[in-house]
Structures are given as C-alpha cells and as structure tokens.
Amino acid sequence: MIPLHVNGERREAADARRNLLSYLRFDLGLTGSKYGCGEGLCGACTVLVDGQPLRACLATVGSVAGGRVTTIEGLADGDVLHAVQQAFVDESAMQCGYCIPGFVMSTVSLLERTPRPDPGQVREALSENMCRCGTYPRIERAVLRASGHTSGAAK
Amino acid sequence: MTAPAALEGLTIQGASALGLPLPSTGYARQAYGNVNPDYGPATWLRIAPDGAVTVFAGKVEYGQGIRWGLAMAAAEELGLEPADIEVVLGDTARVPWDIGTFGSQSTRHTGVQVRRAAATARQALLEAAATKLDLPPDQLTCAGGRVVSRADRARGIGFAELLGGQQISRDIADDTPLKSPDEFTVMGTDRGRVDAAQRVTGRAIYTQDVIRPGMLFARVLRPVAYGARLLRVDDSIARMMPGVFDVVNDDGLVAVLAENDQQADAAHDALMAEWEERPDSVSQWDLPGLLAEASHDPVVTQEAGDVERALERAEHRLEATYYIPYIPVAPMEPRAAVAEWHGDNLTVWAGTQRPFGVRGELAQAFQVDEAQVRVIAPEIGGGFGGKSIYRPALEAARLARIAGRPVRVAYSRSEEMTWSTFRPAALITIRSGFDGAGNITAWDYHATHTTTDRPMIGQRGSETPYEVADVRCVVASGAAPLRPGSYRSLGCAVNHFARECHIDEIAAAVGMDPVEFRLKNLPDPRYRAVLEAAAEHFGWKTAAAPSGQGYGVAIGLDVGSYAAECVAIDVQGKEIAVNRVSSAIDCGLVFNPEGVRSQMEGAIMMGLGSALFEAAEFENGRLLNGNFARYRVPRINQTPAISVALVGAQANPSTGAGEPGIVPIAPAIANALFDRTSKRIRELQLQRQL
Prior knowledge:
The structure holds two protein chains of two kinds. By secondary structure, chain A is of the alpha+beta class. Chain A has helices spanning about 20-25, 85-90, 100-115, 120-125, 135-150; strands at about 1-5, 10-15, 45-50, 50-55, 70. Chain A has two domains: about 1-75, Ubiquitin-like (UB roll) (Roll), CATH 3.10.20.30; about 85-150, Orthogonal Bundle (DNA polymerase, domain 1). Chain A has five helices and five strands, in the order ββαβββαααα. In chain A, helix 2 (about 85-90) crosses helix 5. The longest helix of chain A has 14 residues, at about 100-115. The two termini of chain A are about 30 Å apart. By secondary structure, chain B is α+β, with helices and mostly antiparallel strands. In chain B, about 30% of the residues lie in helices and about 25% in strands. Chain B is built from 19 helices and 30 strands. In chain B, the strands form eight sheets. In chain B, strands 11-12-9-20-17-18-19 form a seven-stranded mixed sheet, with helices on both faces. A five-stranded mixed sheet of chain B has the order 4-3-2-1-8. Chain B has a five-stranded mixed sheet with strand order 14-24-23-22-15, sandwiched between helices. Classes of the chains: A alpha+beta, B alpha+beta. Chains A and B meet through helix 1, helix 2, helix 3, helix 4 and helix 5 of A and helix 5 and helix 17 of B.
C-alpha cells in the first residue's frame, strides 16, 4: 500500500504504478485535474506535491509516495475561494474552463515562489500551460490581480 | 420534447427549432445532415413556487459563454441578477429541440427567444400581482425577485408568495414586448461570468469527467493510416491481461473493455493487428498541385458585368495565388462519450455541439425511437465547430450494448487530433484590374476548397465587399485527403485571407495607404465604421506599404457581423511576434459586452496560431503532428496587447460574435509582415514561409 495525503486526507493506494492523474480522477473521483495531452505539455493536469507543481499525467502514485498532494478541489476553504481562484472569477478569466484548474494551480505555485511577479514573469511562468480558447489576456490580468492580494492569503 | 405536464409555479412555453427555415439551414443540413426538427412547443422558462428561475435552451456551453448571455437576457426582463438564473442546456430530455450550437447563432435566435420567454413571464407576474396589490399591471414592475409598484417600490409582493399553490402556463407570442436598449440595466453592462466558480474549483463536469457505476473503460483500435483496412487482429494476449473484461470485434469496431483506463491502454497495446494501407494516399506536399490541377462543381457566388473584358482593358493587372493548409481544431478536451443502456433506453453523455443530431443518429443506428435516447452534453472543453461531428457517442453506445455495462470512450490527444475533422485547405487565385487612382476595375476570384460533399463551407465569405463593376467569384471543390469539418469561421476566414492580402497588394501597387485604399473602395457604412474604429484605436498613421513599421490591417464579415483588425508585428530571426492588435466589431445589439470582448480576444488568439504556425502535416495517410509535442499552439507569452471596440448601433438585431474576430487576423498579420519586410507571403503558415 502506498500512503499519501490528498487534499489533507490520508489515502492508501494499492498500485504504485497507477498513473497519478488516473488515480486522482477515477479512483478518488477528483476530476478537477484534467487530461489534455498525456505528455506533460499542456498543464491541464497540474497538481501540487509538497507545494511543488507536478504534471500528474506523467507521474505514478509510487513517485509521490508519502507526499502531500493538493488538487484544485483542495484549494478553497469551504465556500471561500483561494485568492487565485477569486481573481480568475473576478476577471472572468475562462472560456471553456478545461485548462483553468491547471492555470490556477500553476499560478498558486508561481505566487509562492514570486509573490509579486511582473507581467513578464507571469508570461514566462505560465507559458507551459495551454488555453485553446485564447483567454490569455484575462488570465494574465487575473494573476496580476491575485498577486496584489496574495500575501498571507495563500495556503 | 413532449408537452410539459402542469406544474406548480409559472411555466412559459414556446416554439422550438428557432431560426428554421433560414438560409443557414441549408448549410446546416448540408454540413451535418440528420436534421429532424421538433417545432415544439417546449418549456423555455420556469419559475418554481419558491421563486427560483430556470431557463431551458438546446444550445451547449463550450466556452463561448451562452449560459452567461442567456442568464443576462432573462435577468434583464425579470428584474433579476444573472447569477439568480439557472440555465439548463444541451440535455435532450429537458430542453427545447435545437439544431446545434454553431454558426454564432445562439444569441440571435435563442437569446431573443429567452428574452421573449422572460418578458412573457414578467407580464404574467404583473397580471397576477395586479389583483393582489390592487394596481393595474402597467404601474407594476419586477425588481429583485418581487413585483413592485413603479411609484412606491416598498409596495410589492415576492415571486414565491405570488406563485405558491398556483399553476400558471403561458405561451410566448412573437410580438411579446421586450425592454428597449435604453431601459437596460443588465444587458449591455459588464457582469461577471455566471459559471465562473464551478470552473475555478473543478466542480464543472465535462464528458471526460463522467463516471458511472460499473462503468468500463474502452480503448478503440484505430487504423494505422487514413483509409487503411483491417485484415486481421489477434487479441489472444490482450484478453489475458489484468482487468480486461472483453475485446470486442463488431463490424469494424475493435475495442478493449477494461476495469480501468490503464488496463484498457495496456491491453490495447497488446493487440496485434494487420492492416492493408491505401497505395494512393496524398501528402501535404502534393495537395496544392492537386487542387490546381483538378477542381469540380464550381459555383458562382457573385457575378456582375464582364470580368474578362474588364481585365483586358484594365490599366494595371495583378494575379496572385494563395494557399491555406488544413488545420486541426485541437480543443483542450479530447472528445469522449459515456453510454448506458436500460433495456432499450439509451443515455449518452457526449460533449457534442449537436446533442439532438447525435440523438437522431443513435436512434437510427439502434432502430429505436428518438424518445428512447437521451443525449446529455455536459460542459464542453472547447469545440470551435469541430465537435459537431461526434463519433465516440456511437462507439460508446455500441460497446455498452455489447458489454451490458456502461462504457466510456475517451479519445487520447492523438486520437482527437487524428480522428476528428480538419478545417478545409484551399487554393485561391485572384486576378484583379485597377487604375492608378486606386479604383478596382475588375475582380476575378477562383477558390478551390477541399470540401468534397460540403461545398457550402467554401462559399462562405467568398464575395467581395469592395466596389467593382465587373466581378466574378467562383468557388469549387477539390481533393480532400483529410476529413473536412467545421472550425471557427472556417471557409470564411480562408476566403478572407486571400482577398484581404490581395487588396493589400493592390494598395501597395498604387502606392496608397492600406486603410485609405480600403475606405476609398468600401461602400458599406457598417464596414467603414469598424475599419475606422480599429484604425483609430490602433493609432494608424497613413503610410503606403512597405513602410518598415510592421503594421497591417484587414477587415471581415461573417455570421452577419463586421470586424476589422490592425496589428503591429516585429520579426526576430524566424520568429514573428505580434505585439498589438486593435480590433472593432459591429454585431448589432450586444447582450453581454464582456462576452463579446472575450470571444474577440479568443478568436484573435486562435487566428494567430493558424496564421503563424498551425497546420496539419500528413504523409502516407498519417498525420505527422497529432500531439502537442509536434503541434504548436499560441501560448500566453505570445499574446499581443489586444483591444476590442464595440461599435454597432444597438437598434440593429444581434448577429454572431464568436467567429468574426478570427476572420481578419491572418491577412492582417501577412500584410504587416509585408509592411515590415517587403516580403509578400501568400501561403500559411507564415512563420514557415518566412
């Protein structure tokens, strides 16, 4: 059995070779992390493991054994959205929304490392997340908005 | 949908199958077939006894924000906030029949019907309240979930109190009075997206996320190449692999069914298949030549005067050929379907743009009544037209019937890229005549689109809006080695690329500024207005190209709306950077300005990809770039500063907003490239040709 924490809950996974994204989505029902490419190139499956961003589609459960996994479902505090989520809502920074969980998780990670990024740093940090609807101008605004409110609020 | 039963509360019914028959219906029939309209009546709006308002519409939400726009429309007429309105979409068991979500028709047809439904509900509420408040209906209004006196807002009654214990049913009349734009307090204002919270928390459910009890995971065996025929398949190893429930081989459909996705993938990889490939498959390199050599079924889309004589007599002549390759749609969510049978009743979750069309296809395939099939389109992770044709629904339904358990078919990224449809390619030759003063005297347009059985796609937007007495526009069909399908603005954007580049070439030949040249030859005032607005926001300074500045302009008309875009680019080595885009759109009455801006931004970003570096690469019947390692799409660090000016007169009816933004962007960038480098590139992708 592989022990790990998912969104604060202790879990035990049966198979170390189980794909982490499939485990989260189909075994735990946490479908907020999305499958987009299976190659780690679109960022839709981004989760945090011990605070570090990880492309879940390329990881196995065994590779994160003992780790603390945070998915998009674990970000809000009850009905109170995380500052990054709230900023995406405030900027209507989404269209189809399929990529948005990945963008939100990548942004949380960016703001942990760089609490006040400039636009260039935002664009650099998020250039490995894809949005096919072309919501990029709004996403950039949302990240900058979140960075103004994030100190202390980030979990 | 059957006539609704009497329910407590207020029920508003009206006709379905909106927009039929319209000219676009011919297109839709031709493009998608299987149109079996149900004209209703159906329930469009309900106010429950507790006052909760629900709107029902047959459109689907795939990012364009129709839920947002319809909530604003209903909120406006009922004096509520958009967030107060629940909007049920795309579930054939619950919503009015609809032809499909494409062609930017949702606001102009469904949006108007929802306004009428809400206005009918308002009238019913006012009449019901009149007796209770002892005031005539015309002295009442709806505000904040109550009917109140116009004179004294404190005097009123809540929707719930008014409707409790009542069964009121009303029919929508075509002449239902709607609020006029000068009374709007919700429509035309900036309101936040109504479904935002679900999308940032992961609670929004897409087809890829649908999990049913006892569901099997399928992996379908796909051909090694387009047109390849399966000779035999050995599944003996696959059958022994862990978790495998069955390997189905049924009339051309071969699939592994397993208890989880990884087991299905592993067993699929253990299938040993032998294929017979077609010897005559066309490669991307052959296609322009094939289109030049052979085109068929020419259709004249515009003709006046005698173009051959005008060309002969022209002071100057220009002839140029443009090529636009195939591109895949590549939405973020690869298509998927989950099917579940209960006896002869079938439920399929399918992220299609045509839930009712897919329902008809399924009913036909299984020889059951349409009423026995329910298709639910959950949230859709992008589609841009491409999810109109939707094959996994039938695959999942067939497999579920065989297995006797619910089955999920979810395409991988490479299946999505390889086995969906492509925006058709085209080869377009334009011969023009003009004089030294900048008057166009002849326009001969000949396009061959790879559209085979769907010639309407290529005809869209092939006419010229510029003043010219002698004109002939002809659109024909040519070889289609890849399966053509819908795409944002498809043929229209392709035709505009050639025309707007050619117009720029004429302007340069006569030494005129490209904005000035267009204005000189453009009679339509709505067209002129968007061009002037875009140029003004851009800060366009008159100069003939090539000026070295890297500025380009183009205009477009699609789905009834006018658009213009000015771009500023720079070239560094082999990279083209688009730094700035100033756009303007006239789409008539705007329900949701933030929605329109959002669609324009998205269309510009999508068009930037198809202009610079997106194209399907194929050889020997294989797609060579069917994954994101080999297929480049625009990223956030390539995003220009984008401005969107909304310039339409609000007295004009609403027209489409989802597509027009993509139409001018590719020619505007090509024209800017000429302005910057003096190099005229007539073939997409521009970056590859640089």
